[in-house]
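Deviations from the work plan: none for this task. Representative record:
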Amino acid sequence: MTLAAAPTVSAAPRANRKSRRDNRFAAWAFLLPALAYVIVFFGYPLVANLVMSTQNYTVKSFYTGEAPFVGIANYSAVLNNPLFSTAALNTVLFTAGSLVFQFAIGLALAVFFNGRFLGSALLRSLLLLPWLLPLVVSGAVWRWMFDQDHGVLNAFLRAVGLDAVPWLSSTSWALPAVILTNIWIGIPFNLVILHGGLRAIPASLYEAAALDGAGAWQRFRHVTWPLLRPVTGIVLMLGLVYTIKVFDVIMVVTGGGPANATQTLTTWSYRLSFQDFAFGQGAAVGNVLIVVATVFGLLYLRSAKATLAEAA
Amino acid sequence: MPVVRRALVLTASATSAALLAACSPSPTAPAAPGGSDAPAATSITELDYYADEQGSAAWQKILDACATQTGIKIERQKVPTNQMLPKVLQSASSKTLPNLLFTDNPTLQQVAATGALTPLTDYGISTDGYYPSIVKAGSYQDKLYGVAPGVNGLALIYNKDLLQAAGIEPPKTWDELKAAAAKLTKDGKYGLAFSAIPSEEGTWQFLPFFWSNGAELSQLDSPQSTKALQYVTDLVNSGSASKSVVTWNQNDVADQFVGGNAAMMINGSWNIARLDEQKSLHYGVVPIPVPQAGGKPVVALGGEVGTVPVTDGPGQQAAGKVLSCILSEPTMVEWSKAHAYIPSKTAVAEKFGKDQPAMQAFVDEVGTARSRTAELGEKYPKVSQALADALQAALTGKTPVDQALKAAQQASGS
């Protein structure tokens, strides 16, 4: 033992130094792919978009590569456009409306499926379908269902003796219609993550609460809800980022119409770029969206830190 | 003996030369007049948006025929319509433009303005015999950058059975159209279907009403324009056309017509093949009704123009040869037959209309059709968008017609 240990002891400082150097090298080696990925696929487009938003970037610029610098002219043009307030308000309504219902329904379903019963696993996997379908397919199907004259939704309303709703052809109904579509698409995401969070809550806590005489609501309010909070934060945060950038659903269902009633910042940015060919202004709108998403991301990080500190 | 032998040798060599020439016409063909003296490449790339099954097959046939005829291999690429412009812009910035590009005619001005296209006169392509409006659509700053083998337009397509049952003649004027649409609207069916979606497609469908009434794109809030928009709005408000027109694209409109939900529709010639497939559907085609009896309908000119982007000398020369082949009269007729387009040469179109009765109404309209970009050039997309917005605002009842057009004029002027 001693004989064997002696060389090890004497070699230790050298090995330490060497391993520290190796460690640093290994750290960089691990970091580099991620760093390169972020720079190439995130940093570069972000910077390019920022630069583009300060240029008079036209169709011509794509070919010649020349785009005169115009400072903040694109931003002021966008902010002064009467469509800006419409698009911003629609974005807020769309995001808030989608999030609230997606989360509430997703949570209710997650709690429901947390109880074991025959076929619960099968039903749960069936509920994932909206998430698995390509958005363009879901959008097209919803568009048919919303059809004013022959859609299944209005057929149902008529069957129960209600008036048909001009879902997509009325400026006041179109936004609720796309929000409805997006809620349906977003429920599985909320369901899956919240269900995972519920599974992580130890059953013993519920047993203890039940022994102490807590009813179903009290168990939810005082056991499930507080323990689910970190997961809730993640779901809402990711949901917000996903929802604020929703483009395909709106594009397929309404195309931003009728009369701009469902124009959000994303669809408007597309329209500015690819229909009006004002690429600089389109980029400016895109940047506004990025700023909003970043602010919420930072808020989430702060609250996550606070939660961690609380737990510690 | 020697004389005979020499004659034999001469004959043999002459024959082989002729054979050679027949097999590979491209190397021996004279260099295209004007432009560079570069020899033509043996293969080119081509980009188009005939992505639907039937249109794609028809176009492939045309390309195959011209590949055989010119001896130039054509590598084809196709993208969906709405991805065409992004694709062109992307390849323009990476300098990987195709040798031959077929794009929607209103986008030609945008692409030509970048300097990415070459004038077609470099390849000996002349505009003789073409409808002047087609030449206008393909020209930017008085230079010809694009020519279409065939064009399309909108007309009024009606269900013969439904009109007969109601005892109605196909309408020729606005008043007749209004009355017919109202009378045909019953039992959950609408009299008329058209598209008024918030994009170029919506503007394109409204332009026949707008232009036929004498309005101009430079003045969107003129009395003529107001009257045209009011007319279309009344069709929807009176219930003769569904309120859903603001969400229907032209395919949806055709669906409504084929499904028997609309007795008449405003739609393009490219639907004819699809309508013919429905054996139980008897349809007729008449020009779009005009404000006053005796007037001429003015529709917008549709269809794709062939262009030769700046690539390299041999590639451009080869693309020019292939384009010349596509524009040759037999090919023009073949393409028009296969895809229900109208040949873009006056004389060819007139003969074509006589051979294809269903196309006659479209042929009649091409004579008075207008190019969307002739007056506005690069500014067209912005004005088109403003007009589509006004259409949507008026049809949904969000804004009165005159105010909607005032706002459109402001938006297009800024």
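The first strand of chain B starts at residue 43 and ends at 48.
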